[in-house]
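Moderator note: this is an archived Q&A kept for reference. The question asked for a predicted structure of one protein chain; the sequence and the answer are reproduced below.
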Amino acid sequence: MNLQIQELATGPAPTASLIVLHGLGADGSDFVPFCRELDFSGVPGLGADGGLRFVLPSAPVMPVSLNGGHEMPAWYDILPVPHSDAPSAPRREDEASLRRAQGWIDSLVQREIDRGIPSERIVLMGFSQGCAMTLMAGLRNPHRLAGLIALSGYLPLLDTTAAERHPANQHTPIFMAHGDADDVVVPARGAAARDHLRGLGYAVDWHTYPMAHSLCMEEVADINGWLVGRFTSPPANARSPSSDPTKRRPHRRSGPRAQTRLDHAPRQ
């Protein structure tokens, strides 16, 4: 599958990559405003002396069972939710389409490596369906990644994670966030993923925000600061508390506490 990919960069010779996976019914261009909001000024290697490459793939158009079989951009099929199920109840999953999408994400990571970006300088990020694929593919990827950012989503094939995860990413930091008023992917599903991952020993940095199934400016600023830390952190055994770059905060742009919806999904 040759995915359509849009790219942006903060400098002429990128030394790191952020792969961003959109939600159901959206496409890669929906994250262009998010990328332009991030501020890496003064971060060595991410400005005029290098750059951060934003990789914004678009999922293929496919029938989605949850939407009555209507075609839309989707990373995988979502099966209908029985009306009798509680919002936080376990879901039936289309394993075949999930596995297929995992292969696409693995190819995106390999593409960056082939272009000279060390895997330890690649962050995988996703919203909603993209969040699900970030966690599923990222934890199974054989290359050590710089980090995973999982927004407003859940962990698919949860019961297979322990057996299938790759040791290369056992210590990869994970930023997870969810809106406390999300009625598409209810917060309990995100929290269940968080708890499962922590139970497997992963370092999960968990955030909640007063919003629905969307992004807000406070969340964007927190992601910005977390990314600065990931792309400036030396090896753990070389770091001292007084010089810990994860304590740095980016410049917060002024503006309203806006919320942006980034997919077109019914309750999942």
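Archived answer notes: The domain at 4-260 is CATH 3.40.50.1820 (Rossmann fold).
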